[in-house]
Amino acid sequence: MLPTFNEDSLSIFEGNCTFDYEISFSDGRVQSFHIELDPKSLSIVTVPRESYPDWTKLSCSRCENCSLDPQKHPLCPVAANLLEATDAFARNISYEEVSVVIRTTPRNYQRKIPLQSALRSLFGIYMAASGCPVLDKLRPMVVTHLPFATITETAYRAFSMYALAQCFIHKKGGTPDLEFKKLGEIYKDVETVNRALNHRLMSAGFEDATLNAITNLNCYAQFTEMLLEPRGLERIEGLFSAYK
Known about the structure:
By secondary structure, this protein is α+β, with helices and mostly antiparallel strands. It has one domain (14-48, 55-240). Helix content is 40%, strand content 12%. The protein has 7 helices and 4 strands. A 4-stranded antiparallel sheet has the order 2-1-3-4. Strand 3 (97-103) and strand 4 (108-114) form a beta hairpin.
């Protein structure tokens, strides 16, 4: 019997999005994180704390391209949302091997990997869904979050997301960016945020597991931007030969 489709079939985009990360160390320690996203905006659902450390303030290592009003946003949304995770791994080393289990509604993932790789995946959700005006443009990728993604898979998803965004712009009467020129600008801004965040975390005294997770995310951004250089996308153009 063929499946039937209705509005509920689009629940991946409109239903509750939750991610449960369980990171286990060789000494038996387990760190668990439950991430819930608002079903409409895909923004992260958080419970405000009574107080926040200085390194989470917007004024601390503020990004050069930050457009937030300090009067309305005294905290950096990325830093504030990362606080629980960064505190949990403040003194850990990047290459410490951990067992990671990730539970989502459609499927589960499990793998043994260096801690920095697990944190890259975890931090990516927090950052894109935090409410940062720069990283907001990556938020549609959260709904198809792919843990342990390779650098090529991440770039492919970014291009696909941007192409769909241009389709929506065209449908609304706008001018789509078919040459992906503005995508390069987006990723330059993302790199600026990543660098400032890394400096922010360094100033707070975090060890290299946390710092390298952000550095790895920046490498993914740089690779995506590199593919936008002349002849970059020609490397994969042959995959689409059936579309004429």
